[in-house]
Prior knowledge:
The complex is a heterodimer. By secondary structure, chain A is an alpha/beta fold. In chain A, 17% of the residues lie in helices and 42% in strands. Chain A has seven helices and 21 strands. Chain B is of the alpha/beta class. In chain B, strands 4-3-7-9-12-14-17-20-22-24 form a ten-stranded mixed sheet, covered by helices on one side. A six-stranded parallel beta barrel of chain B has the order 13-15-18-21-19-16. Chain B has a two-stranded antiparallel sheet with strand order 1-2. In chain B, helix 2 (36-45) packs antiparallel against helix 3, helix 7 packs across helix 8 (164-170) and helix 10 (429-437) packs across helix 11. Strand 20 of chain A pairs antiparallel with strand 23 (402-411) of chain B, so a sheet runs across the interface.
Amino acid sequence: MSELLNSTEINIINSNGFEGILNEKLKSEALTILETIQFPTTRTEAWKYTRLGKISNKKFNVQKGDISNISKFQISKEATTLVFVNGFLDSSLCSSEIPNGIEFKSITNSTIEFGKNLKLENEIFHSLNTAYATDGVYIHIKANAILDKPLQIIHLLTGEHCIANLRNVIICEKNAQAEVIQGFFTENAEESFTNVVTEIIVEENSHLILNKIQYEDESCYQVSTEQVDQHKNSTFTINTITLNGALVRNNLNIEVNGENCTTNLNGAYLLKGNQHVDNHTLVDHKVAHCESHELYKGVVNDKATAVFNGKVFVRKDAQKINAFQSNANVLLSDDSTVNSKPELEIYADDVKCSHGSTTGQLDEEAVFYLRARGLSEKSARKLMISAFINDVIEKIQNEEVKLFVIQLLQERFDWEK
Amino acid sequence: MGYTENELAKDLENQEYKYGFVTNLESEQVPKGLSEETIRIISAKKEEPEWLLEYRLNAYKIWLEMTEPNWAHVHYEKPDFQDIIYYSAVKQKKYESWDDVEPEMKATMEKLGISMDEQKVLTGTNVAVDFVMDSVSVATSFKAKLSELGIIFCSFSEAVKEHPELVKKYMGTVVPVTDNFYAALNSAVFTDGSFCYIPKGVRCPMELSTYFRINEQGTGQFERTLVVADQGSYVSYLEGCTAPMRDENQLHAAVVELVALDDAEVKYSTVQNWYPGDKDGKGGIFNFVTKRGICERNAKISWTQVETGSAVTWKYPSCILKGDNSVGEFYSVAVTNHHQQADTGTKMIHLGKNTKSTIISKGVSAGKSNNSYRGLVQIHKNATNARNFSQCDSLLMTDECGAHTFPYIECKNSTAKIEHEATTSKIGEDQIFYCQQRGISSEKAISLIVNGYCKEVLNQLPMEFAVEAQKLLAISLEGSVG
């Protein structure tokens, strides 16, 4: 196996003897692909605005880490929690009791079929993940189970030049309801890299909410892919909050394969420094009578860059689709950049689809209005930014998560409490 | 607008592509194929100066290095560049006056609805026309009247001979040879086109117009248009095009360059009606055009286009807003039916301060066609207070067609305001029902609704063109009730 590892063209990973956990067939398929492909450049349409030099020039180590106190990373105190450090489950930090009606454990040794809908060809990060995944979470919510507490997964990264390749699977069976919280944090990490792939199946009549909070160190990188397969009458909601990280790329691929589905995608990104955050979303409406709502809002300061690429695909015969997409950006500094590309590709006629994208700045008159009423300029601007971003934060139904996000915002942008 | 329902009904009876005839005139051609030799022959035939030949050969060398782009949302069989006749001209004596023009040629123009007769024109409409058939310009009207004002309006080859300093100064400044595959090809083999120069402070009293006609089989049309509006001047320019019905795909790869110097305004309108191919998607013109304008300080460029023809359309009339306070506008209606494909839109490059741009794009897809809007709004770092508004609507007529929107919005300045919105929907059944209830047939109801939907754009067209465009819309959508 190690011979094979060394022969790969893309040799950014030093696996330190840890072997990938996925089955041999998949792994070797991924490794074969890795031998033939290169890192995408800005000439590749999907990476037009994101340069990967920071990642492709480095060599990352797979190594276990040690973190003793996770209290400050606990988004939800009541949730059932699993903790992964550097891509390995740390059972000493996990909740001891798992509620009835679900499986919530490490993915190692599970016999499920991976990567059914995941494209490996030309998707270097999917291939890297498939070849080198060290662990991940397996969530299986049985039919008719309705969870009263959310499930929480905390991914921690520690150390220098480390890589965590995580492979998660979430299966929500018929009539089930669940909420999953995913948090990405770092402690004493430098230039480390998280590459996570989450495969999600939302079966008939089930409801799944995924809250994702990305708050890794300013020097760390993350590429995160969600591959979602939605069956009929189901609802899937994902809230992505990105507040830190040197380079963050989110690939959200949602295939709507059943009728009467609702899909909600919300995202907020507040960037400063030299951050680069790239949100790519794809909602593929394959059948009729579905709805999707997408709202992404961002505030970009300093030399940061935000990229939004949202695509709505309506296949032939997928009639009566209502798909709405909106992206709004505020630029706060002259060195900040926003690249927005909302796309519609529609092959059915009886649909209502729209998208909107705006880029602008804070309204100086509104700032003046607030200052005339005794607010300092700084707090007037803060108020307006938080009001702008609140549209997205409000979409998070879980109060604990919402409070945690607000707390992070205060900490990161030192907004007064 | 003088266009009544009865006329519409009459037009609707004329289902066929109206301009699909061929004119039988003896023509002079160079053999098929592209090589340095071909370029030298074209250049020699046109008695071009050395610098232009150099320009062509340089472009050809660059073109050889390039590969045909394939990022557009269109599928077609790539043209075989060795199977195209690059030069085809009607054998003509030098026309001294209008009376010298062959009756066949006159008949052709009449059939196309172009009036060259200045006397007649004066009483009716007021448009100066340059008529380009296949590779060369056949006739230009109103030249004398325009030259009184110092306006130069002539064919491109004439401009090369008589105003080389102007051509040399501006040609290739907006669309450089290296710009793209088809622009490079055009720079190497272009045969004719129109040239127009409006001197300082002059407001051109009439619409200037070019009519492009492909006639011969197996030819490609590569023409170049250069419009230069000097400081404080104004010109409104129209462009129309048609081609005979053939089973083969003919290539039309043009380059249009607009230069609007300080305080100048250029309005460029196109009604594109190349032969779109038959119901099964056989034949039709490939329309791969590079159109771009550059705005200096306080200048304005406005593009209006009605795209109804061509098997494949691939063009993005763009504005480089270089000067402070300059304005760019883009109004477009693109209608596709049967197997037509269109990938069209605009680029607004904001470089100067306080620059403004407006994009209104209306797409109508019928039959099995695909219609894409692809646009770029780019705000550069120094474009303080730049403003853009974009609106792209798509209307779908059948369940087999497609409508797509690919906007690229890139902003590097924190004082810029950019808005983009797009919608895609079906033609309203309740609206059709409402019309039918009042005794309007569904066919006419659709034409009425589509015309209303496109009104924002059609209103931008000069009067005569607007009427023409409305008729075209109705004919293009003939039999498309989904």
